[in-house]
Amino acid sequence: MRKGTTASTGVAGTAPVVSPAVPANGQVRAVIDRILPAVDGGRFAVKCVAGEPVVVQASCFTDGHDMLRVLLCWRNDDDTAMREVEMRARGSDVWEARFVPPQAGRYRYTVVAWVDAFESWRDEMVRRVEGDDIRIAAQAGAQVIAACADRADGADRRALAAWVDDLQAMAGDAHVDARAVKILALDEMLAQRIRSYPDRSFETVYPVELPLVADRERARFSSWYELFPRSCAPVAGQHGTFKDVMGRLPAIAAMGFDVLYFPPIHPIGTIRRKGKNNTLEAGPDDVGSPWAIGSAQGGHKAILSALGTPADLRRVSWVSTWPWTSHSNVRPTTHTSRHTRTGSAGAPTAPCNMRKTRRRSTRTSTRSTSSPRTGRHCGLNSRACSSTGSTRA
């Protein structure tokens, strides 16, 4: 971070504390009041879609009538070097620029600003009318340009040095029309060369690099369709499989759904298994609740053998990426399990904010590590729901 600003992140998990430090000589004059978008001062990441522009605004100002120059700086989380984009004034001290995250990932962005001596001089020169005022301003501008020429190199250095000589010679010659001096001073081609070598020794850097998460387009909004694979058999009374699910994919995609959502597909416990309609006694043909995970076949890392093999599940994932419709690709996903502080697997989590009911534990095996769960009430074998902002497509 450049001099003139300091930052303290404070307590972990809290919003960053911004503490600008103003040097005694007051040469750091640019003020960056705030940057938008930002969530809780950078405590949480702003979200966007990869490949789409992110518009950033900053409130920047300084004392007096001098001109500011403001840059938007951004980088990928894995990079160290910042990319810079020129910000434009939109009025009322608001500056704006945009950048495009090229791919999904995490990014950082911030803003730097400084008082630009050359642009300040050039802005005043535009307003000069009297001949003597123009000549005096040209002499002062020659000193600013000379300082910039010292920072340049190659052809730019030679061009700026020649500009200084010509400007001083014409400003000091009373026989030269003042209007010609003004035209030379405002030469746009030479001004472009100077803008490549700014004096940033007294710039202000916003103390927080704001986080940004760029995700896939589907993360903005997705329609989720949930079904029980065991209920997809074409013959009533038979246990469905992953292969049976593949036969349902075209119909699900035709309804406009993006994501196929499975309940737990792990082995189901047999001890204290419940029967139909939540009865306490299970019959020989009762398959049990899929949330009662754990049996002799395995736990959370195994797949119920009646549904198929891991290869069958991968095939469902592959087939579901086929473009069944022009607007929808169904992608399968399953419940994920959270873990308790002891490391044991807890209740599966659901992606939709639907009504939840608390029930007694359905643990049915001594190998099950499930805690009393909080799950969604499931009264049907399939259900459709929508999730805004989901990233589990």
Structural description of this entry:
By secondary structure, the protein is α+β, with helices and mostly antiparallel strands. The protein contains eight helices and 20 strands. Strands 4, 6, 7, 10, 11 and 12 form a six-stranded mixed β-sheet that branches. Strand 16 (336-339) and strand 17 (345-349) form a beta hairpin. Residues 1-21, 323-329 and 335-393 have low confidence and may be disordered.
Key terms for this structure?
393 residues, alpha+beta, Immunoglobulin-like, Methane Monooxygenase Hydroxylase, Chain G, domain 1, TIM Barrel, 3 domains, six-stranded mixed β-sheet, four-stranded antiparallel β-sheet, 20 strands, rod-shaped, disordered N terminus
The helix content, as a percent range, equals 10-25%
Structural class by SSE content: alpha+beta
Q: In the CATH hierarchy, what is the class of the largest domain?
A: Alpha Beta
CATH topology of the largest domain: TIM Barrel
- Report the sheet-strand fraction: 25-35%
Q: Give a count of the beta strands, DSSP E runs of length 2 or more.
A: 20
Q: Count of helices?
A: 8
The CATH architecture of the largest domain is Alpha-Beta Barrel
Low-confidence stretches: 1-21, 323-329, 335-393
Task: Kindly give the count of domains.
Answer: 3
Query: What kind of assembly state do the chains in view correspond to?
Result: single chain
The largest sheet, given as strand count, sense and whether it forms a barrel, is: 6 strands, mixed
Task: State mean pLDDT (0 to 100 scale).
Answer: 79
Per the principal axes of the C-alpha atoms, what is the gross shape? rod-shaped
* Computed Rg: 33 Å
What is the terminal-to-terminal distance? 38 Å
**Helix and strand pattern:** EEEEEEEEEEHHHHHEEEHHEHEEEEEE
**CATH level-four homologous superfamily name of the largest domain:** Glycosidases
